[in-house]
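Database export, one record per block. Field names are fixed; values are copied verbatim from the stored entry.
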Amino acid sequence: MVTSVSNSTSTTAAQAAAAAANTSQLGATQDRFLKLLVTQMKNQDPLNPLDNAQVTSQMAQLSTVSGIDKLNSTVQALSSSMLATQSLQAVSMIGHPVLVPGKEIGLVDGVADAAVNLAQPVDGVTVTVTDASGAVVRTLNLGSQDTGITTFQWDGMTDTGSTAPNGKYNFTATAKLGGQKVDATSLSYGLVNSVAQTQGGVKVNIGQLGDFGLDSIMKIL
């Protein structure tokens, strides 16, 4: 297992250097503006002096630009700090099983775990396991369930009474309340292998399931 938290340090340092460069550039811009303003005032026509309102407007514009740049630098610093904190927190999940949105279920030696997320209590939940060709392998009746995440385990037995081979399968969940279908989200089970900080935020790698954002992890088991 590899943890890519070192990216967080290098990214933070790069962003700090960029913020320093922006600050230096802003200071140079302010100096140039003030020099031009002073020169303009020194060489103004005494019979047609600069309009006070115009000078005030120019100063206000410079102040606005300066304020926006400082705000952007502050937001970038906060964002970098938050990403670094999320990376360190995510490291603790390495090696732990988690549930993420997905329809894959892996069978290993008669054990396959997955879950269903329900937005409301239901009268019954039916899980249909299919193979790579889409053929139904096993139908599981989970009965009535409450709101939230319901985990289940498939023992590898098929509807015909035979034992399914190890491998990847797909599953769908159908929930009903009063004879009407209700929303049921399928959740796949996997182990967190690594953590990386990307431009899109902190990502965790869950083996063959792929990479997921922290907001996609529904439960840590």
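Remark 1: The chain has two domains: 3-91, 97-220.
Remark 2: The two ends are 19 Å apart (CA to CA).
End of record.
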